[in-house]
Amino acid sequence: MGSETGIIVYHLSPDCTLSEVEEGKIYTAYVQGFANFGVFVQLNERVKGLIHKSNLRGKHSERDPVLVKVLGIRSNGNIDLEEVNPSVYHTEVVVKRSAPVLFSDLSRFIGRTVQIEGVVAQIKQTSGPTIFTVADGSGIGNAAAFLEAGVRAYPEVQLGNIITIIGEVMTRNSQLQVEVSSLAVLTGDEENRVRAAFEQIIESRAEPQDIPFLIRSEALEKLRPVMRKVAKLIRRAIFEAQPIVIRHHADADGICAAVAIELAVSALIREGGGDFDAEYFMVKRSPSKAPFYEIEDITRDLDFALKDNTRYGQKLPLILLMDNGSTLEDEPSMRFAQVYQIPVLVVDHHHPDHEIDQYLLAHVNPYHVGGDFGITSGMLGTEIARMINPAIDHQIRHFPAVSAVGDRSEAPERKWYLALVSEQYSEDDCKNIALALDYEQFWLRFNDGREIVKHILNVTRESEVHSSLAHLLVEQANAMIEEQMAALMPHVESRILSNGVHLFLFDVELFAHKFTFPPPGKTSGEVHDRLCQINTGKPIVSIGVGPDFAVLRSRGVLMNIPRMVRELHDEIMGGGISGGGHLVVGSIKFVEGMRSTVIEGLIKKISEAPVEMRNP
Ligand code: MN
């Protein structure tokens, strides 16, 4: 009877119901009653079936054990059985199929065996077990599977698979972890069922809270739907254990925007449990030197992401660009992201080029709703951060004011945000914080300065450290600016253009210190501010010229720098022209040998621009 050795007889445990009974399988049962058409048997206290007399193999008395095969289960729940007598078989216990435990409830099951279902978000091989990070929508947790020290367990499981795990809930290094006793990849209907359930949980959980903005602003209200969308996509990424890369312009505005999101995200990751250091490898903030996403930046980001993906089984990241990302200058980098289908979000207040939107999942930009750069990235970032995680509100509510003075916003929102925090921070305090951020970022170069920046922004409320540090940075920054201005101001040349614009030209390489603070962009800004003060009420354009670049600032002139740059690119053959920026603050690059031709072309364009202010 060798053919029968593989026969399994199932034993229904007491809490099982009809839903655990399957057609074609053999079960243990006992006789319960007799009728003239057959014998009634119980599979357990809850499940009863009938062996028709034609399917009986012997005579029985009440409570006799029998083995029965399920021939069919009728729609009314009646079970048709056949008595069987396999000579060799083994028994397996059928346990009640329970709803899987959610990660958010895991702490109530310590020491117990549970079932978990979810999406594999990360697979990490340690020198001991293989750690599967699983997201089930309610949370993220780790399951440890051990085959042999350092050997990958369940090698068939891949990132993004839907799996079901049975294991014991343990505490390891004071973190909850499921010790896997069995693990299977779900396919077909089962997979679809879990995926759909997961999708439903995560969709509703990712929905940001509806909270009022810190100030009343029509422009912000118009942006609310797309800000919500960004907040939701970021929340989703967190709940799905997708890393987030925050790229931002390396100035006070960009820093405020990005740090606000970083704080919101980190706090949410901590809240969700998972790994202690998850907030360090799941969210990364990187300053970009240029006010756009350079190929150098995306190359670094891709390099890290692909290595983490290969080495730690981490998902590819979501990229969030702040205070950059909205112009054609960003396009080459976005095409790299597209190759890997990396989702990109933009929160910016530079004048946007619509061509860029084909690469973006969402794009927050005041120009889309008739606003302008006066709505700073720091304002947008702070409000989005509050949507992501309202709990950090008190840490970031002064960020918009700092960003507004840092970016010289002239929008009404500037004074509203300043008024909001005026009890703790005067306008001068905000200016000092902005300057301290700019100055510190100069020394940080490509580093995020995560903790130092928190001290400068007074996030940690260590007021002693904050004020000493900010004071020191401001003192040094101002000394260096004064030094630079003392050297440069005597070399500023001026002329009045045909449209009445007062044009100021100065060479930021020949008459300023190189490779130190303030860099050419900021140097030009400082000169421009001084010239504006001297020439009250007059339309002004300042051009800080370098060997192969120029930095533009203006007041009272309706310029469109990105458009001027594009026109010059087409008009001046061999100029090698590129650049952009805001409408009235920006930069242009060219080849050194064409410098005077390009600058003269630029001045001609400026002399054609309409003037807002009249000469007194
Ligand atoms: Mn900005």
Cα gyration radius (Å): 34 Å
Which secondary-structure class do the elements indicate? alpha/beta
Query: Total number of β-strand segments?
Result: 23
Low-confidence stretches: none
Structural shape: elongated
Domain count: 4
Sequence of strands across the biggest β-sheet? 18-19-20-21-23-22
Bound molecules: manganese (II) ion
Average residue-wise pLDDT: 92
Classify the beta-strand content into a percent band. Answer: 15-25%
**CATH architecture grouping of the largest domain:** Alpha-Beta Complex
Q: Approximately how much helix is present in the residues?
A: 25-40%
Short description:
The chain is of the alpha/beta class and about 625 residues long.
Task: Give your account of this protein's structure.
The chain is α/β, with parallel strands linked by helices and 616 residues long. It folds into four domains: 8-94, Nucleic acid-binding proteins (OB fold (Dihydrolipoamide Acetyltransferase, E2P), Beta Barrel), CATH 2.40.50; 103-205, Beta Barrel (OB fold (Dihydrolipoamide Acetyltransferase, E2P)), CATH 2.40.50; 207-424, inorganic pyrophosphatase (n-terminal core) (Alpha-Beta Complex), CATH 3.90.1640; 492-607, Diaminopimelate Epimerase, Chain A, domain 1 (Roll), CATH 3.10.310. The chain is 35% helix and 24% strand. It is built from 16 helices and 23 strands. It has helices at residues 188-206, 218-239, 252-271, 278-282, 295-312, 331-339, 377-388, 393-396, 399-406, 412-420, 427-444, 450-456, 463-488, 520-534, 561-571, 595-608, and strands at 8-12, 26-35, 38-42, 48-52, 65-73, 79-83, 90-94, 113-125, 130-135, 140-145, 162-172, 175-185, 244-249, 283-288, 318-322, 344-347, 362-364, 493-496, 502-507, 540-545, 549-555, 578-581, 586-589. Strand 20 (540-545) and strand 21 form a beta hairpin. The mean pLDDT is 92. The chain binds manganese (II) ion. Manganese (II) ion binds at residues 253-254, 323, 349, 376-377, 407.
